[in-house]
């Protein structure tokens, strides 16, 4: 039987814990999360277990990435069950601070971003990536893991974090895993719990629209037309789309042509009161 993970509440304790592992010559992996863990998170843990000697998961609902009208207070908080899930996978430590630990009184520093942080999510949530980058930098500097695991479901976030780590020369490798999906194609997300039964039946049509649009783009023809068709299909299914866009998969720049470059199709759409995001390679 696996031991329960050590529960850490301060950055000082996180740093001491990982420093102790490193002093023994052990490698360390980190899985940053906001809790409400699902199989997508657990897949990140399992991959980290294969790559490193010790694993620390973080659970922190980060207030700085929520806007004033967003779901910070309603976001699911399930620390006890999250820790129990992590224990079954042999996670050695869980870092679960409070907001005052991460943002003490007088906190006045955030990370300024460009590159892959521009457009898409930023057009609708301008505060979001500064909050993400700042808290991820604090976590990585708090634990100095050898690797940190992120899922491709939040694809723009993944590229923003990679750019930040590269630009700040942080000594952590960012490892990405493909999106984990339900059997009907819906990308796993903690916010799926907000969906009503009828909305849950509709939700997989987001992934279906992405697949159909990607297939149309691969077949040739007018990309803008294919994107409009995909957008219209989402509206017809009952979504309120924010965007459905084709971007370069490495930079998120808008491609002048579709040939000879990796491409990613990204979408965000509201279904009732729930905002879903998804993406696929083209």
Helix percentage: 25-40%
CATH class of the largest domain: Alpha Beta
- CATH A-level architecture of the largest domain: 3-Layer(aba) Sandwich
Q: Which structural class do the helices and strands define?
A: alpha/beta
CATH H-level homologous superfamily name of the largest domain: HUPs
What percent strand?
Answer: 15-25%
H and E string = EHEHEHEHHHEHEHHHEEE
Kindly, what is the distance between the CA atoms of the first and last residues, rounded to a whole number of angstroms?
Answer: 43 Å
Gross morphology is globular
The spatial strand order of the largest sheet comes to 1-4-3-2-5-6
- Number of E-type strands: 9
Average predicted confidence as pLDDT: 96
Radius of gyration: 19 Å
Total of domains: 2
Q: How many strands, what sense, and barrel or not for the largest sheet?
A: 6 strands, parallel
Q: Given the structure, what is the number of helices? A: 10
Q: State the oligomer.
A: single chain
Function: Catalyzes the condensation of pantoate with beta-alanine in an ATP-dependent reaction via a pantoyl-adenylate intermediate.
Catalytic activity: (R)-pantoate + beta-alanine + ATP = (R)-pantothenate + AMP + diphosphate + H(+)
Subunit structure: Homodimer.
InterPro entries: Cyt_trans-like, Pantoate_ligase, Pantoate_ligase_C, Rossmann-like_a/b/a_fold
Notable characteristics:
single chain; six-stranded parallel β-sheet; 19% strand; alpha/beta; three-stranded antiparallel β-sheet; Rossmann fold; 282 residues; globular; Pantoate--beta-alanine Ligase, Chain: A,domain 2
């Amino acid at each position: 039987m696996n031991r329960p993970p050590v529960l850490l509440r301060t950055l000082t304790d996180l740093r001491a814990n990982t420093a102790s592992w490193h002093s023994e010559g052990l490698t360390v992996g980190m899985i940053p999360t906001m809790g409400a863990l699902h199989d997508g998170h657990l897949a990140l843990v399992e991959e980290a277990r294969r790559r490193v000697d010790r694993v620390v998961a973080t659970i922190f609902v980060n207030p700085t990435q929520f806007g004033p009208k967003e779901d910070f207070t309603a976001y699911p908080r399930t620390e006890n069950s999250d820790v129990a899930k992590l224990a079954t996978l042999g996670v050695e430590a869980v870092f679960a601070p409070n907001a005052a630990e991460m943002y003490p009184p007088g906190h006045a520093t955030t990370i300024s971003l460009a590159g892959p942080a521009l457009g898409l999510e930023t057009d609708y949530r301008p505060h979001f990536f500064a909050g993400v980058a700042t808290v991820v930098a604090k976590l990585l500097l708090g634990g100095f893991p050898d690797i940190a695991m992120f899922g491709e479901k939040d694809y723009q976030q993944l590229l923003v974090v990679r750019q930040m780590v590269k630009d700040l020369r942080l000594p952590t490798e960012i490892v990405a895993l493909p999106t984990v999906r339900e059997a009907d194609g819906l990308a796993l997300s903690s916010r799926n719990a907000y969906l009503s039964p009828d909305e849950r039946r509709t939700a997989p049509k987001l992934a279906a629209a992405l697949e159909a649009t990607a297939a149309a783009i691969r077949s040739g023809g007018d990309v803008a037309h294919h994107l409009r068709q995909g957008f219209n299909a989402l509206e017809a299914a009952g979504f309120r789309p924010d965007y459905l866009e084709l971007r370069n998969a490495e930079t998120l720049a808008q491609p002048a042509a579709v040939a000879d470059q990796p491409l990613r199709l990204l979408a965000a759409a509201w279904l009732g009161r729930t905002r879903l995001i998804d993406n696929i390679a083209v």
